[in-house]
Amino acid sequence: MKHFSDLISAIEITNKTNAKIDALVDYLKIAPEKDKLWLITLFTGKRPPRPVKTTLMRQWCLEITGLPEWLFLESYSSVGDLGETIALMLPDPTHHIDKTLSDWMTELKALKPKSDAEKKAYVLHAWSGLQMQERLIFNKLIGGSFRIGVSKKTLVNALSKYSGIDANQLMHSIIGHWDMDTISFDDLVNGEHINYDNSKPYPFCLAYSLEKELSELGQPEEWQVEYKWDGIRGQIVKRNDEIFIWSRGEELVTSQFPELVTILQNFKEDFVIDGEILALKDNAVLLFNDLQKRLNRKNISKKMLEEVPVGFYVYDILEWNGDDIRTQPLQYRRQLLEQLLSSNSAHDTLVISEIIEFTDWNELDAIRNRAREFNSEGLMLKQKNSPYHTGRKKGDWWKWKVDPLTIDAVMIYAQKGSGRRSSKYTDYTFAVKKDDGLVTVAKAYSGLTDKEITEISRFVNKNAIEKFGPVRTVKPELVFEIAFEGIAFSNRHKSGVALRFPRILKWRRDKSVEEIDTIEQVKLLITNPI
Amino acid sequence: MKLIKFTKKGIYCIPGKFYLDPWLPVDHAIISHGHADHARRGNKFYLCQTDSKAILKHRLGADIHVESLNYNEPRMINGVEVSFFPAGHVIGSAQIRLEYKGFVVVFTGDYKVKNDYITVPFEPIKCHEFITESTFGLPIYNWLSEAQLQQQMHDWVQRNQAHNRTSVFLGYSLGKAQRLMKLMEGVDKMFVHSAIHNLNTAIQDSGIPLPETELLIYDFKKEDVQNRIVILPPGLLGSKLIKKIPNAATAICSGWMQIRGNRRWQAVDAGFAVSDHADWNGLLSAVKATEAEKVYVTHGSQATFSKYLNEIGIPSAEVKTEYGTEEEEVELITDKTSSQ
């Protein structure tokens, strides 16, 4: 496992995608055939089910080290990863086991139906025969994410660099149906088991943020204006009765959205359409937070399908019965799209993106600012004559987002992050004034630089009240400007309000806690009380 | 017997009328070692171990009033016998042993129990009361042997050279830098930053030999440094100087690098868990070897370590001091020792 262990070490230390890709390529050059297949399996979420429960692993670690459970938990909250905590706490190895990645995986797969006693004997033998880093990897092979920033896309780019094969084709190959026991690595990457002609996507056309006055865009009638949605930009490819859904990150996400596939199967035509995957319920768009519940799941339960149904707002059509129509003007493509959707029964799942009627540029600003009321992020402005560009090109398509709402709040709790952020306090809870005290309004964890996080962590260490556990109550002193996309009354929150997508905009070092907002001021921001 | 008292200014010896590593200015300070959180400015009189004297003068000013003692060379101060014993932390670091009417208190300052082959190794001392640090007082901190660590680092340099890269190690100027020099001795030519170079000169001038290094001058020639080894204080991470080093592969050297999240926190190419503090088992073995009836735990994981000692039957209490911080981030972010 030495090579695999070196690979993980090389990948985990760098935050540069290219360095990760180079490390993967180096590994692919020397790894045995079966190990390469396992590598793909592990990093595409196709790993076998966990053979040993974490509670058992934790219990065995405590037995071996003789340490109390509270100390284990204290250590865990410092490390932020269970497999790593165990690997660090175990005593030095007494012997050295050298097995290939595929040997380990085969054994772990076979371990699943065994008794707890047999599992224990196996795991303990492995633990005492592996160095720290190898032990960590072994624990990760049993289950859990490596959390080293290797997405399917990174893996595919590495495979592409190694093999010279087109990355999107490789994406289809590794996502497609294949069985480790019957396919060779070469056949897999060459796509012997798939027909790439059926799935091949087009590059997405992307928009820049509006950077000029509307009047400079020309006549209003030259523009098609639509709402901008905050979901997952997607491309649906339907050719020869096969259906593929690509995300903007060039990952194949077809299996995550079965309801879309079902609807698409009713269509007779072949086409490629561009749009937004959204959580849609009763004809309304739900929050991205809701959509998130549906993402990256191995199995989507019936309950989940009912609670967060997914739909697709269609923006554009790129291919029609085999013809690439991207160079045709938007106006023409839109007509075709309307035809396609009106002649098929797509229910409420496949919905054409509404065109906003307006005659004067001055009307648009008010429309944009109302967008928040139904969970839209703002507007998209598209030149009616524009082709479907490859990538980001200035001039024809603009996005024009709503301005975020902001408040000043004070930090009252801090919690350590996970993965790369496990060493620092990165997750904060903020409060505003209520009567003579404070009331929690938001939790946020993004928007600060590493340097600021380090500084805040030092403040937390100095000013924390608790000594144990992951959460620290801190002196209300640090003031932050919190931005959010929406606000509504809420009975579930103590403050009586719920913020949508709160994030830290700025650390207001210039403000003291006396200057933060009151809950009354925050409630005034609610424009559409329900 | 009450020999010591924890005060706002620092650890105070009642009959001796002096302070140990005070953080506010006092008349009479006994200093465990030269790091800035232990040896502070503004004291009227300093007493330290012989090898620390040149370091203190270098950092606090040549005009300070300082005297020194060798290891295990007792001096009576107001009826208290004061002596220094090796702490194995950095060059000149000492545990301070106080004896008064047969009652013994030992203050460790900072220490590590394993031999780094450049610092006089740690020596356990029996005492009634033991004041220990706890920087790495969690069972997840267990260091590799010096030989294993050296192998890892040598392999890294070799891999860098195979890819035409210059190996840059970051470690604070006093202690870590000399340790890295020792670990890398004989591998290739080593360049050091002026902050480290000046300290090295002070150490060598007081008669302590160090591995051979060359000063990294500001306008160095790229071809001289290419593929070699460079040792810099951690504060230089992201600096202009480090960007000038051709094809630099950068490694942070600190005990905190034991944890993946810490290694990945800063955009560097490697992290080596090289620490001048005792690891979990080191702390436990040191505490047990003293056979102390009471253990005071200072800076680090004091709450956790102290609670654990009580659970295993060693009476213990935590003490708030101004040494380090819980996370000891100072070491990672700014080179506190060269920020003077």
Automatic annotation (TrEMBL), chain A:
Q: Which GO terms describe its biological process?
A: cell division; DNA recombination; DNA repair; DNA replication
What PANTHER family does the annotation carry?
Answer: DNA LIGASE 1/3 FAMILY MEMBER (PTHR45674), DNA LIGASE-RELATED (PTHR45674:SF13)
NCBIfam families reported in the protein's UniProt record:
DNA_lig_bact (TIGR04120), PRK09247.1 (NF006701)
* InterPro entries referenced in this protein's UniProt entry, alphabetically: ATP-dep_DNA_ligase, ATP_dep_DNA_lig_pp_1105_fam, DNA_ligase_ATP-dep_C, DNA_ligase_ATP-dep_cent, DNA_ligase_ATP-dep_CS, DNA_ligase_ATP-dep_N, DNA_ligase_N_sf, NA-bd_OB-fold
Q: Which domain of life is it from?
A: Bacteria
**Family matches, as Gene3D superfamilies:** DNA ligase, ATP-dependent, N-terminal domain, DNA ligase/mRNA capping enzyme, Nucleic acid-binding proteins
Enzyme Commission code: 6.5.1.1
The protein here is known as DNA ligase (ATP)
Q: What Pfam families does the annotation carry? A: DNA_ligase_A_C (PF04679), DNA_ligase_A_M (PF01068), DNA_ligase_A_N (PF04675)
Record has Metal-binding as a keyword = yes
Report domain ATP-dependent DNA ligase family profile positions.
303-434
Which reaction is recorded as catalysed by this protein?
A: ATP + (deoxyribonucleotide)n-3'-hydroxyl + 5'-phospho-(deoxyribonucleotide)m = (deoxyribonucleotide)n+m + AMP + diphosphate
Is Magnesium given among the entry's keywords? Answer: yes
Q: Name one GO molecular function term.
A: ATP binding
- The enzyme's main class, written as a single word, is ligase
Keyword tags: ATP-binding, Cell cycle, Cell division, DNA damage, DNA recombination, DNA repair, DNA replication, Ligase, Magnesium, Metal-binding, Nucleotide-binding
From TrEMBL, chain B:
Q: Does the keyword tRNA-binding apply?
A: no
What EC number(s) does its UniProt record assign?
3.1.-.-
Keyword Ligase found = yes
- InterPro entries noted in UniProt: MBL, RibonucZ/Hydroxyglut_hydro, Xnuc_lig_assoc
The entry lists its GO molecular-function terms as: exonuclease activity; ligase activity; RNA endonuclease activity
Q: Which UniProt keywords apply?
A: Exonuclease, Hydrolase, Ligase, Nuclease
Report what the protein is called. Answer: Ligase-associated DNA damage response exonuclease
Lineage, top ranks: Bacteria, Pseudomonadati, Bacteroidota, Flavobacteriia, Flavobacteriales
